[in-house]
Amino acid sequence: MVNQPIRLGRIFGIEIRFNWTLVLIYLLIAWTMATTVLPQAAPHQASWAYWVSGLVGALIFYACLLAHEISHALVARRKGVRVASITLWLFGGVTQLDGEPASAGAEALITVVGPLMSLLLAAVGFGLASGLTVIGASPLITNLVAWLALLNLILGVFNLVPAFPLDGGRLLSSLIWWRTGSRLRGTRGAVRVGRVFAGLVIAAGVLEILVGGFLSGIWLAFIGWFLFSAGGAEERQAQVLSLLKQVPVAAAMSQPLVTVPDWLTVEQLLSTGQHRSPIYALHDPAGNLSGLVNLADLMATASAARSEQRLRDYALPVAAFPTAAPQDDLEAVLHRVGPAIQRGVLVMDGTQLVGILSGADVARIAAIRQAQSSPPMG
Description:
By secondary structure, the chain is an alpha/beta fold. It has 11 helices and 10 strands. It has helices at 21-41, 47-78, 104-134, 139-158, 167-180, 183-210, 214-243, 266-270, 295-299, 330-337, 359-373, and strands spanning 6-11, 14-18, 82-89, 92-98, 259-261, 279-283, 289-294, 323-324, 345-349, 352-357. Strand 6 (279-283) and strand 7 form a beta hairpin.
């Protein structure tokens, strides 16, 4: 699929991925450096030298961007929040956390280290460029280093703008959360400020188009629209979580647990059309639990292989899924597991598996709570 991230590897045990949009921005940065920035700053160089410098410089910039995201991830792990992955894409990078920080202070610290890393890299870059100038290094290399330092400076400053999903938006949210004691009020306050900023960016884009800068105007307007939409999505997520306060997991989980033989083929299970659970428990011929299988994994199986692949081929151990107890607070569980809810959470009563909690279950209970809290019509 076009939007499926491509895996690069692991750093500090964290999976690093990139979206195909990264290639477009990489080429844009390299092209800008090779055809405009470096020829103006260091004229009379060979064309191939500009292009090599541009391609290498763009690669170094994304290494700096990765350092920005890794700093978020390492501090998050230090604060007890699991890190699922880091994905580089069109607008920079996203550190995907499996859960939420437990306090406003933890969230602020996790957030602020990213811009600080970019600003530190900018300072190092400007210092290195000054040193290269003193020793009489090639102006091409010196200006490349200086421009990379400038990009990191822009990245660090821009990320401090108080608009979701930028780091500044999360910083403002954590500050309001700390002052009011409410995570939801923190998110709502930051979203309001972010919408004002997004509106100004959109207006600047429209103005740029009117004065003749069509491409730059479209780009500005698109960034403003993205920030406006991201803020709305963040507020809706916070609103859903607020509806689930003091709701036990037992009230939302799906039960009874669906158990099927592990020797069935994928096609045999999918052909029934009765997919009542996101996760199925598997048992062997002796009736013993042999693992769990995720419905999404089965649906992703190639059609040609479904008649040959057995469910046990896709079996995952209990340890592969996050767990919760029936009496646990649903909001707290969602903060803890984060996006992993889409894969499913095993509800354990001691050592016994008593139910499954899925994203659909959360949506259902949130809709019920929303209806109960809405004023009657008439």
